Amino acid sequence: FTKPVLAGVNVIVTAGGTKEALDPVRFIGNNSSGKMGIAMANVAADMGAHVTLISTVHDYLNSPNIDEIQVNTAVEMKESLEKVFPKNDVLIMAAAVSDFRPMHKSTQKIKKDADKDLYTIQLQKNPDILKEISKKKDKQFVVGFAAETENLIPYAKKKLYEKNVDMILANDVSKAGSGFNVDTNEITLIRRDKEPETWPLMSKNDIAAKFWEYYDEHIK
Ligand code: C5P
């Protein structure tokens, strides 16, 4: 049992990769496991926060302090987030949101055609949920993630300003043990007017604990 230092703090965490439907049985998705977001939710709840978890994955949740909202698509995630955002103090945007969705969703399963080898899917740009919600920011402390394969700090800083968020947790996904579908990550914490802080490689659970301790000490 952890000291309830986050009692009274209302937190939203988004987790998992969005699933953008092509037809009733198929979707466009990505490799996100949702582990980073689930760890953020579990640790915050353990420290006494009330957590709303908006997620595409269902995983082990260790607290009655977590209300879970299941979504599939980016548009559903955005709508759910907009409803709860005003009542919350912190947003952790850990979801891997698909930048595109199929323009048309077939109502029936798409059939293959005996005479056709080539098929085309037209994609439409999804909203940038983080950028849009940050425009409605009032008291909320908003945290985004950045996964990069080069120029980690400059690219992450650009995101901090373009998306108007308070913090970016950045990681180089080309490094061993970092990024999608592993239990560990090497995070660089980036804030405005502060030197970037790189944490050693550690488990996503330990990163979540370190992040919430940082929040308790420097932000709350
Ligand atoms: O632009 P990029 O995808 O690298 O930004 C990553 C951050 O932005 C993550 O926090 C992610 O959850 C969020 N994002 C979003 N909506 C999108 C794309 C990314 O909220 N369409």
UniProtKB/TrEMBL annotation:
Enzyme Commission number(s) of this protein: 4.1.1.36, 6.3.2.5
Region (Phosphopantothenate--cysteine ligase): 11-220
Biological process per Gene Ontology, one example term: pantothenate catabolic process
Cofactors demanded by this protein: Mg(2+); FMN
Protein origin, superkingdom: Bacteria
Protein keywords: Decarboxylase, Flavoprotein, FMN, Ligase, Lyase, Magnesium, Metal-binding, Multifunctional enzyme
GO molecular function terms listed in the Swiss-Prot or TrEMBL record: FMN binding; metal ion binding; phosphopantothenate--cysteine ligase activity; phosphopantothenoylcysteine decarboxylase activity
Cofactor annotation remark: Binds 1 FMN per subunit.
Ranges where the DNA/pantothenate metabolism flavoprotein C-terminal domain occurs: 6-213
Residues annotated as binding CTP: D99, K109, P127, D128, I129, L130, F145, K159, K163
Reaction(s) catalysed by this chain's protein: (R)-4'-phosphopantothenate + L-cysteine + CTP = N-[(R)-4-phosphopantothenoyl]-L-cysteine + CMP + diphosphate + H(+); N-[(R)-4-phosphopantothenoyl]-L-cysteine + H(+) = (R)-4'-phosphopantetheine + CO2
Pathway: Cofactor biosynthesis; coenzyme A biosynthesis; CoA from (R)-pantothenate: step 3/5; Cofactor biosynthesis; coenzyme A biosynthesis; CoA from (R)-pantothenate: step 2/5
Gene Ontology CC annotation, any one: phosphopantothenoylcysteine decarboxylase complex
Function: Catalyzes two steps in the biosynthesis of coenzyme A. In the first step cysteine is conjugated to 4'-phosphopantothenate to form 4-phosphopantothenoylcysteine, in the latter compound is decarboxylated to form 4'-phosphopantotheine.
Family designation: In the N-terminal section; belongs to the HFCD (homo-oligomeric flavin containing Cys decarboxylase) superfamily.
The name this protein goes by in its record: Coenzyme A biosynthesis bifunctional protein CoaBC
Boundaries of the shown chain within the full protein: 181 to 400 of 400
